[in-house]
Amino acid sequence: MRHARNRILVTAGVLAFGSLLFAKDPSKTKDEQDRLQNSGRVMQEILNVPDDIPQDLVDKARCVVVMPSVLKAAFVVGGSYGRGTMVCRTGKDFTGPWGAPAMYALEGASVGLQIGGEATDFVFLIMNDRGASSLLHSKVKLGADLSAAAGPKGRSAAADTDAYMRAEILSYSRARGVFAGASLEGSTLRPDGEANRRLYGSEARAANIISEPNGSAPAAAHDLIAALQNSSPQLKR
What we know:
Structural class: alpha+beta
Strand content: 15-25%
Order of helices and strands: HHHEEEHEHEEHEEEHHH
């Protein structure tokens, strides 16, 4: 009995140590929390304007990527990049409610050319299962690994044309309040592994995070998930 009790105490001690070792320090995740809050603000503002993204495209999107306030200064020599987050519908074939967000990075010279000297928000709609699955596991080059197009805007936009139906990713930009489709072919999107580990823990991977219900999401992501859920609670094929 004494040996069994000792083993229990040792096990409890190891578990306690492990929980301390991998506990998330809020002060170390401030950047990620800010990114989630800014992404929520951007998404709310865009979805509240009917002439921005056609509703039928939001209803068909499997995932949404938001890159808030990207600056051209971030794209100087040295490999810096824009940072944001991706939220996907949960469940089989991305048909469920919107889930927890994973952190993502945007890279490429074409991004710098697009944004000039202004702070620019980027939004990407991931339009099919293949596009969503590819982004969960690897770096994706727009226009090469996945087909991409500048997204149409406005309630009267022909969102069902062949060009948009074929595209796996539709991209948009907003600078100085002007919202428009953005051609970002040649740029790349990838999971931001370091940010995901800081936000969710040492074993966090984008594919695992995305499959989680929104109840697993950080509090800072509430506005982002709520904006998407209120706008498009159900996938429409």
